[in-house]
Amino acid sequence: MYYVDVILPLPLRTLFTYGVADNIGRKLTAGCRALVPFGKKDKGYTAIVVSVHNRKPAGYQVKNILDCPDEKPVFTPLQMELLSWISSYYMAPLGDVVKCMLPSLLRGGDDNPAQYKPKYVQFLRLAGNAFSQTSLSGLTAKQLALLDCYKELSGYNANGVEMAQISKKALLERALCSDVPLNALLERQILEYYRVQVGRIPEYNGELMSPKELSVAQNRAKESIEEAFRARKVCLLHGATASGKTEIYIHLIKNVIQSGGQALFMLPEIALTIQIMKRLQVVFGDDMIVYHSAMSQNERVEVWNRQLGNNPYKVVVGPRSALMLPYSNLKLVVVDEEHDSSYKQSDSSPRYNGRDCAVWLAKKCGADVLLGSATPCIESYYNALSGKYSLVELEGRYSNIEPPRVEVADMYQLHRKKIIKGYFAPVLLLEIQKALESGRQAIIFQNRRGYTPVLMCKDCGWTAECDNCSTTLTYHKSESKLSCHYCSGSYPIPQCCPKCGSGSFTVKGLGTERIQEQLEQLFPNAGVARLDLDSANTVAQYNAVLHSFHEREFQILVGTQMVTKGLDFDGVSVVGIMQGQNLGAKVDFRASERAYQLMVQVAGRAGRKDRRGTVVLQTTQPDDPIVQHVVNNDYKGFYRQIIQERKDLSYPPFCRLVEILVKHRNAGTATSGANRLADKLRTGLGCNVLGPELPAIDRIGMLNIRRILVKIEGTLSVSGVKEFVCNSADSLQEQPYYAGLQIVFNVDP
Ligand code: ADP
Ligand code: ZN
Ligand code: ZN
Question: How many angstroms is it from 281 CA to the middle of ligand 3?
């Protein structure tokens, strides 16, 4: 008898042991799937085998495995290590990590019955009676003609077999005939259908091109990167937007695959980076796969299986989930826009950061890592300056165009002096006007956070709030509804104020929809389109808007964060930032960093190729240092400011953070549970424990939330602290009164 330790696809931290008969146990290895009974009803779950051994567990009746579907493991040894590292580093149950890694159609089990379905196509071939004279002699002229046509098409010759795969459609099109003679041939068993399993991933039919020749500066940067790689260091490439980083990535990837290795190219959000993907596809064609969110579950399985086989894709392009695929010979990982917060999965477990996992994975398998950004994240730049990473700087823009000129419009003064009434500074309107007159385009950016339009009663000031969350609802004029951006709840617009009965409402806050409306009035001859989660919530819609902007079908593009990423349009000469505010560290210790990064990224969309662009930065805080760093295009100044703040207040990179969210339907239980946990951590840990406090949104989807922040400083063992936190939470939840608490850990928030 063998025993196997397995991970169940459930949010559980421990392994479970099952028995398995000798003949199967001998074949099982780590990474195989096993169908196992679990729970009171012995439901079948697909678990992942971690180890196979002969040690009979003592003290309980061991159940047996029900089935083993795999000849070969579905997880490579490297993936098994990644799995357990993510689980322990991010304090996530092993089962959550398995569910996050493995495509759901490979998971099976009673809880997840859908299965991968291979795709087949049908072709025609000659059947037995095609070779019998008696059968052939009974055919009509039409049927004979069709048979001849088939032989000709398929390249059949008397001694050979069919050379080509002929579909029904191809045959009937060539023979110019209906189904009738074909059905007769099928009935007489002169022709028959056979099916072939095919892949669902479409082949690349576009043109292929070699990478562009690098400029002197690009070549120099590339050589420095290679030198860093030889020294076995992670390399941070700091280069302004449009400095030509992507071209360098392409060259490095090309080199890797020419010497037989695999490359992983990570992007923050695949939907927002269609242009970059296309540039890679043109070079790598069918050697490359884009592992994206719009992919079907069946397609995911096909990519997964191909990566496990002998002919894996050489280049994988994708968001953070792409690092979860099997790799057999990974030699290079490129993390583009490495500062982007989308790399962090923050809304579900495991709350991992794709960039940091990629660095771990690459180190584990001896691959090189290149992090690239125009606005590197503070921690990465700190690592580069302290010598942990190698720093390579790519100065200027590829085309030698100067970076855009930034004009600051002091909105507070403009309003106070009654120079403007609306939302736009005169200089912004002037620049848009100039752009339109010279056949150019403009991008207008509105940071959504904090500025969503809110419905307010004119008489008593009542604002609409979500029933389940402690947030105000967002007003959507075009669909005439109110919606909650936290729980996605949707509400009709009230006829009259529920508080005072008045029927007159006003809209507070400046959303993209309103900006679009105003611009349409101000520039009636220009086309104005909008790009945000409401106007483009599918990849196809997003692409359609960008495509027509590229074709210059409209001149002004208004949008949220969606317009800040990866767009490379020659026609854009003006970028307007509607509210360039620094929300500051009060909101979140990364708020200033994010504000800076967003503004620089969107500014980078102006004047990329043939002439210098202009950015108009509207703000009520013209003297704020963050705004000044944007104006002066001064990353280093920005870095010095933030790193000092982080040092003074002890935030990363000067400590490690574990955020703990304690949730319960009952506010009192949430508070007392959080207090207990915080007390326990304070007494048991030699580190700084902040809170519990109310987060900015303290109720989401009926759950009350309390927040505790653990700061791990100095030489304290990070894993020791995490273990203590986990155990403390577990023992709290063992008390019946607190059994209903949800406790969420977020490492490196
Ligand atoms: P980044 O990735 O730093 O934003 P890109 O690689 O997108 O910069 O380069 C900006 C623009 O310059 C792109 O339109 C790109 O096609 C062009 N470009 C960059 N390098 C070259 C090169 N070596 N030859 C020709 N065009 C280039
Ligand atoms: Zn009212
Ligand atoms: Zn809500």
Answer: 41
- Nearest CA owner, ligand 1 atom 26: 212
Percent of the chain with pLDDT over 70: 97
Q: Is 587 in the pocket of ligand 1 (CB under 6 A)?
A: no
C-alpha closest to that of 293 among 273, 318, 268, 315? 318
- 593 φ/ψ angles, rounded to the nearest 5 degrees: -60, -45
Yes or no: say if 562 and 532 are a contact pair by the CB < 8 Å rule: yes
Handedness of CA 604, 273, 359, 321 (dihedral sign): positive
pLDDT tens column, 544-562:
888 899 899 999 999 888 8
Ligand 1 and 212: CB distance under 6 A? yes
Tens-place pLDDT, residues 99-137: 999 998 888 777 777 788 888 988 988 888 878 888 788
C-beta separation of 662 from 741 below 8 A: yes
Q: Rounded to whole angstroms, how far apart are CA atoms 591 and 584?
A: 5
Ligand 1 lined by 354 (C-beta under 6 Å): no
SS3 state of residue 408: strand
Q: Kindly give, in sequence order, each residue whose CB lies less than 8 Å from that of residue 604, ignoring residues fewer than 6 positions away.
A: 240, 241, 242, 374, 403, 404
Q: How far is the CA of 463 from the centre of ligand 2 (A)?
A: 8
Expressed in angstroms and rounded, the spacing between residue 470 Cα and the centre of ligand 2 is 19
Cβ count near 27 (within 10 Å):
15
The answer to whether residue 585 scores a pLDDT higher than 60 is no
Could you tell me if the CB of 243 is within 6 A of ligand 1? yes
Q: Which amino acid type is present at position 192?
A: E
Query: How many angstroms separate the Cα of 456 from the Cα of each of 506, 509, 513?
Result: 5, 10, 17
Nearest-atom number in ligand 1 for the CA of 214 is: 23
pLDDT recorded at residue 157: 66
The dihedral region occupied by 25, where left means phi > 0, alpha psi between -120 and 50, and beta the remainder, is alpha
What proportion of the chain, given as a percentage, has pLDDT over 90?
56
Please name the amino acid found at residue 346: S
